[in-house]
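Exercise 7. Predict the joint structure of the components listed below.
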Amino acid sequence: MAQGRIRKLIRIPPVSLTEFALIDRIRARSRGGDGIVLGIGDDAALLQPLAGHWLAVTADTLNSGVHFPPETLPADIGWKTLAVNLSDLAAMGAAPAWGTLALSLPHADAAWVDAFADGFFALADAHGWRLIGGDTTRGPLSLSVTAFGQVPHGRALRRDGAQVGDDIWVSGTLGDAAGALKLWQDNGLDVTRPAADADVEFLRQRLLRPTPRVELGLALQGIASAAVDISDGLLADLGHIAAGSAVGADVDATRVPLSGPLRAVLGMAGAQACALSGGDDYELCFTAAPGRREDLQRVSARLGLRLTCVGQTTAGSGVSTGRDDPGAGYQHFA
Amino acid sequence: MAQGRIRKLIRIPPVSLTEFALIDRIRARSRGGDGIVLGIGDDAALLQPLAGHWLAVTADTLNSGVHFPPETLPADIGWKTLAVNLSDLAAMGAAPAWGTLALSLPHADAAWVDAFADGFFALADAHGWRLIGGDTTRGPLSLSVTAFGQVPHGRALRRDGAQVGDDIWVSGTLGDAAGALKLWQDNGLDVTRPAADADVEFLRQRLLRPTPRVELGLALQGIASAAVDISDGLLADLGHIAAGSAVGADVDATRVPLSGPLRAVLGMAGAQACALSGGDDYELCFTAAPGRREDLQRVSARLGLRLTCVGQTTAGSGVSTGRDDPGAGYQHFA
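Solution:
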């Protein structure tokens, strides 16, 4: 990968660090690991994928002011940049392995890069994910990760496997990040410091430090019939399963799991609206045959993670909500 | 990968196309291919790497106004975005396979995206490289590609394999793109239309449509001892081989291959300066034992590509130029 491609086509103000020094600061935080034949520092990294596995590849970009408030602290940006990508791997049932980072920065700022790396590598190290390349360029703050995971042949969680009559499940609680964003938009939340109110602080953490459900994705291999991560809101993302699998989806809005803090801060109606249409929680939504409920209860208990059945797939199309009697599928674990 | 992650944290002006529609326009241009189990459209793509091969991974970003003049036509941006990444794969001796594109656009503009795709996929299709994922976001124009190639075990061209006494080679001619850039900076070149002067037009094409030396990289497996692509200038990039291999490099500046158009437009001194320190040509610089000269002559003839020996590696360190008697290594093919 490029080591120094900042072309001085246009005048750039003096900076405190060269691009090379910036890359070195990041490289110093990256670690070797399984399958890395050659890491950062050549024209390309060399990797040895696992035999008997597919490589899962995802790419997501975060832009300042679009995907996070411009004042967000660099450590939180670092965490979230990787989290949204690991979440996509989780939704495929893939084990995180390696990836690249394209970092565009308006100023070469060592303190900023170090803090960014604190958040980024805290999450990377927790999942054994290794940075094996990337590029640092001058420009408006933007962060693109391409993440690779590995999943045994035939065990990936795709969007197109749901069957009519499957249960629809979600992990954790929904709407928390959207609730925090709403508070921020209403000038009721400072994302740069802990909130005095414990409920607000809970929501702030859910927005800034989402937990990619990697272990859940791995546990769902062989259990779930389809899966997505919830980045754009339950209804929108479940819609991808419905479209991909050619089924309908009936969701009972009253069963969508809401956190206590979200209800306390926004009230029931506001909380429910966030949970149905808000993104950024990075929980998983998946389908499974009703015969897998006991398996899922065990997964929930083992991971200490709430799994909630919020509806069923149907012979129709699209996603509908608000049925008063959503059938016998309701389950609520953990 | 994300299908629609534009968060409306801040007010965004009305656009003519949604992000989904933009992605669909790009997806329609992508093709299936070897090793693609699942392409664009799920949380991640699924790939089946070749047995007995390493995966080569590189990532490069181009930002408007930094890596290319802001007025550059979208088709030229598309070509160059992929070319700089394929060039990194070439420098590893890897065969292009797949990759992702993170596209940040200030406005959703169908005509722009279509023209960008024209240039991008023209090069992709020429090399059998397949787009398998990516992300489209709102923001200043920026393009990040992560490209994967495949190279048989042990056959990769690394930076750390040069031996003392190896010949130093470069492909093609150097400095052409830097010459074009200099003309542009001096207001002597309009990058958006063909130049009336044939020499200037040659240089313009070299800047806008660099040819990644993919076939050369593959041919150098087993012949070259080390390789880099020249993105930052011969002296800088050869310096990576010298440092990585713990050797010195003596370059005879008078042997660095210059095109006729570059000499015609800039004169010999100007041309030589561009060739030594200008980047953006994306030619390969590599080392090989003197015993491989005949092999390289055959490669040059087969590919119809000029290969020039410009010096030798030494027991010293760093890169030096200007020796009057660079030794017996001079060869000039094609």
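Discussion. Chain A has a mean pLDDT of 90.
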